[in-house]
Amino acid sequence: MTETHAGEATETGVDLAFDEQGLLPAVAQDAESGEVLMLAYVNREALARTRETGEAHYYSRSREELWHKGASSGHTQAVEEVRVDCDGDTLLYLVEQDGGACHTGYRSCFYRTVDGETVGEKVFDPDDVYE
Amino acid sequence: MTETHAGEATETGVDLAFDEQGLLPAVAQDAESGEVLMLAYVNREALARTRETGEAHYYSRSREELWHKGASSGHTQAVEEVRVDCDGDTLLYLVEQDGGACHTGYRSCFYRTVDGETVGEKVFDPDDVYE
C-alpha cells in the first residue's frame, strides 16, 4: 500500500454531516444476499482508508482508534460501494463479507430478535479465531 | 388504540444499551427485498409504540419528539420483526414499506453513492405528498 493521500480520499461528491465527535454511523450490508451485517462508526480517516484500500475500516469508539475490520480475525469486508443517505449523516457499505461479521461467530451481528430469539446463522467458533 | 402500557412493551428479552441521550440507532430494512431503507433513532417510548402498534416509530432528534413514520406522508412501515445487535446498541426493523421511505421521493434514503451518483429508485413526487 502506498502512502496515504487523505486529501484525495476524503473528498466526496456528497457533503457528509459528521457529528460533534467527527463520526458517522455506517451500516454494512452483504452486497449479494442483502443481509444487514453490522453497524459501526467511521471518522474521516476510516472512510478515506476504506476508499483507498477497498476494505472496510471503522473507528472503534471503545478502543478510540482506527479499526481495520478483520485485521485480527481475518474476517475482512471487501467494499463494493459506499452509499450515503439523504441528509448525509449515515453511510451504507455494500460488502463482500469474509467469514462472519460478528465477533460472536454469527454471520450478522443482528442474530437475535429483541425478545432474545436466535434467528441468525453461526458461521465460526470465536474460540478458534480470537486468542 | 388502547392506552399505552409502556411497562409491558419496553420489556425486551435482550438488554438494550441506550446512549447518554436515551437513544439507539435503528436501521429499517425492507423485509421482502432486503433493501436498506433508512436509519433513524429510537428512545424507549418509540420502541414501545412500535411494538404496541406494529408500525415503526422513531424519535426525531431535530424536532425532539416521538415520530410516527408516515403519519404525514402516509408512507408507514409495518414492522414484521425487531432485531438487536450483539452488544445491544443498534436495532434492525424489518418492515413492509408503504410508498417510499425517503422524504425526497426515493424508495430508500440511501439513493446515492458517496460520490453523488444516483442509484436509487424514485417512487413518488414529494410535492404531491408534503404540503
From TrEMBL, chains A, B:
GO cellular component term, pick one: cytoplasm
Cofactor-binding details, from the entry: Binds 1 Mg(2+) ion per subunit. Binds 1 zinc ion per subunit.
Domain named Phosphoribosyl-AMP cyclohydrolase: residues: 38-111
GO molecular function: magnesium ion binding; phosphoribosyl-AMP cyclohydrolase activity; phosphoribosyl-ATP diphosphatase activity; zinc ion binding
Catalytic reaction list: 1-(5-phospho-beta-D-ribosyl)-5'-AMP + H2O = 1-(5-phospho-beta-D-ribosyl)-5-[(5-phospho-beta-D-ribosylamino)methylideneamino]imidazole-4-carboxamide
InterPro entries: PRA-CH, PRib_AMP_CycHydrolase_dom, PRib_AMP_CycHydrolase_sf
Binding site for Mg(2+): 85, 87, 89
UniProt KW Protein biosynthesis keyword: no
Pfam families for this protein: PRA-CH
EC number(s) recorded for this UniProt protein: 3.5.4.19
Keywords: Amino-acid biosynthesis, Cytoplasm, Histidine biosynthesis, Hydrolase, Magnesium, Metal-binding, Zinc
Top EC class of this enzyme: hydrolase
Purpose of the protein: Catalyzes the hydrolysis of the adenine ring of phosphoribosyl-AMP.
Quaternary state and interactors: Homodimer.
Record's protein name: Phosphoribosyl-AMP cyclohydrolase
Organism, as annotated: Salinirubellus salinus
